[in-house]
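=== Structure Prediction Worksheet ===
Name of assembly: unnamed complex
Input type: mixed (protein and possibly other molecules)
Chain count: three
Listed entries:
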Amino acid sequence: MMRKGILMGVVLMVAGVSLFSCSNEEVPAVVENGEIKLEMPLNVSDVVLTDFEGTVTNVQSGVVTKLPAPVKSGDDYVIKVPTLAEGTYNIYTKGSITFVKDGADGSMGFEVTSKDVTLSETSSSTKVVINSFKAESGFVLSEICTTGTLNPQGKNYNYDAYFVITNNSDKVLYADSLLLIESQYQSSSSGNNPWSPDVRPYAIPAGAVFMIPGNGTDHPVNPGESIVIANNAMDHTTVNEKSYDLTGADFEVYLDNGGNSMDTDYETPNMEYIWCYTQTIWLPSVQQNRSYAIARMKEDKETFLANHSVTPTYVASTGKTMESKQVQIPNEWVLDAVNLGTEDDFGWYVISYGLDAGFVAGRANSKDTTQRGTSIKRKKDSDGKYIDTNNSTNDMEARQEPSMKK
Amino acid sequence: MRWLLILLVSCMAVTVCGCHQDNDEYMTVATVRLDGGEGVRIERVQAMAHFTNLNSRHVTSTANFDGAEVQVVLLRGAYQVLVEGILSYVDADGKRMVRSFRAVSDYVELAGIGTSQAKMDIILLD
Amino acid sequence: MRRLLFFVVSCMVMLQVVASERDSAYVDRYSLWRGTTDVALGNPAFMTRAYMKSDTQLGVRCDYRHQSDAFRLEDGTGMALPGIFANTYIRLTKSSVVWGEALYSNGKHWDREYNSVADFDLLYPYVIADSVGGDTHRERYFFSGGYAAERGRWQMGGVLKLRAEQEYRTYDPRMRSVVYDVSLTAGAAVTVGGYRLGLSAEGNIYRQTADVDFYSEMNGMGELQMTGLGTDYVRFSGSNRDIFYKGKGGTLAFDMLPSGDKGWLLHLRHGINEYVRLLDEYNSMPLTTLYRQRSALTAGWKGVARGTERALLVHAVYDRRAGDEHVAGTASGQEYPVLTDLTMYHEHRIDVGATAFYGRGDWHLALKAGYLSKRERYEYVERRMDYGRLYGEVTAQWLKRVRKDLCLNVCGKGGYQGKISDRIVMPYANMTLGRRDYINHNYRYQRASYAHVDVGIRADFRPAKWRVGLFGQVATAWKFCTEGEHEAGVRAAVGVVF
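=== Predicted Assembly ===
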């Protein structure tokens, strides 16, 4: 009986081991003769690839393989992929092209990624498309500094916000009638409500609008130069040594609404007050979850307010009708726009994604305070121009050293 | 003894049936169609489409457009979709145009079992 | 004179009987041989004949463990858990018993990372976590009470177990978890032929609230809602730091034990539990649901003949976890509807083996060998972490009344788990450096081999005149890993027994 029991036990164990210990170490297949097609823009001709670097990264192993130089094939270029293991890859390409568009010579840099691309024996080719779109050069928002700072005692100081607008073109432009706009809505998911009418496809729902005054040629800005608009153009270092001296700003925001404004009028020339959601004091978004834009005013103030003041509504889950009194800036007036959001809570686009298809994450989450004392800046390309593809995810970077910090 | 065995087998059957059934329909073949508006017929799209899963932020990209449609295999779920590039189309007046465009949506449901469809409106950029 | 002689002899015989009874009761309670039948004590009906005599113990104890490097980051590098305990088994009548246990412990865990909840082993991979972690305090209350009775061929019993626990950290990130765990088990058994057949059912309800706070104004890091093998539910990770768990489950078990010293043994158990993780916000939105299925089989034969105890048992344990992620749709008025459920996580653990028992006189020996494997998988983007090990273990026990007032129980164990297979698949290109390090750290120790040595001694001291005895127990356990690291542990307890 005992021997039978021992035999039974051994048989069971062997069965268990053989059943469960199978370690099927698969040898991955290889992809030979793989191809990546670099498709050149449809709306240009005589394209010449002047510069290229590219890699493919195996998602599982992390192995990065450099791609060889592409070879022209018709209107496009083709990269012969080195022999790779079958799997999923992230493709990265960067370079420059020259082309002819509408009869004129042009050039541009490109940087294109394609993620989670399967390369296998049966699917060994893929393509990436070069995008030739660049926003028309002109005034751009090159810096947004609204995070506030911390004083030496670690307390918040929120009065030192400023904006920098730069002439990104090759000619002199005039800042007269430039509008600085803050969106009415917040980009967090808690702000995502079904407002009706939804004006975003044709206008920016704005909560604050201020205008650079002038008769059209009062404020020239040379190519590459900038103007600074401060919320309060004072030397904040006298109050908070970690803040900035904004007395050198070109303009400041002053709520000259004839009502119960608590704003202080410093010596710096004022922006003209067009509209603001608050009558007392304006604080740009410290949480960095609103959008900012610049536009060119095309009507006088009274006509604008008469034509573009709206109050969208929606009915909340409690049954209460919520209202949002605002003004609206037509999208065709807009020169540049930047969406700001929280990294883990970008709930919706508060302006048309035609104006900005991405967002820049000023802070990691709603409890994050480490971004205080930093600013959001626009990236520059190799020839010193600000990058503007109307996609802040690519064009802007957060947590930068504020330019007004000395 | 017999009824004990019957009771035992019944209990085991109940417990086995109570086991969780996996929800293992993971992937969907998602087809996204670009819409140029009334009277606009899109002929060719040259663009990169990036699908970002809202839950995991995993990105899948493709440039394989067939006319105005792009098809890609994705994990079922909700996505943020960004399509940027150039398209050639015939407008409402019958004129053939080639222009830069963008189509973005911060929420697209691509959770159908087997296949999913979505339509996105385009914005012309130039 | 004859009467005196008769009296003395009678006393000697009685004392011998009492001593024998006490010897037998001591051996009955602490012998390694109990390993052949203790698995059936999960059915409260079997408690009617669990021990020969009533026994109550009160004492203090401490468990200490330290690892030179955390074998699993979520467990940390060690713990110290002192506490007080009491347990009792009282025969009320010839046919009924009550038993109970109470425990309070208040101790500490060190260097826990990627784990901001209590009961990680129960709830993984669906925990809230961060890469900073730290030391935690753990306070536990445990009570259980049971009653069993027999009439004729039938035995019935029930036991209620309550556990309340909190685990917290006193510096950022300040995690705090509060657990309530209640189980009720009812069982019945019948004596048929030479065997006792029993069936039991257990129901369980589980609750835990877990939250993480930061008191420092500068400290704004987010918390991760982990979803398995280094992945997290990115959409709701970050500022959502308050979660709670709701769990429920049941277990059915069947046991067959010989009524006497010899015969076949069978234990079958199957349990199912589910634990839902919900966010405090968004109207208690469910993030994930963990389903656990645990099945166990132990079968064998035991016998006692000519003063020798022999048994051979085979065991097979299967523990399966499947995790559903609830894919959220678009928010509407601060509520997220659930779009669909996807079972993204799977884990299968198997342990098959056999144990041979041999006992003669004061000595007992157990030889155990088997195979265990773990296969863990995240469906998309594919992640896998598997290993398989063969193990062998020898346990020896010497249990003896060395003096009239002193019993000693000396136990030693040594074993080895040798890895025979391992595999890892990860989308390393898409992982951050921190996440890569976390996964690789845990995998390093999963694919290692281990040798362990345990030695312990328990002494029970009770002079004849005393109504209460004293006991003291100390044991040390060491584990050595082929990665060059080790674990050392000490357990000690002192108390009274009566």
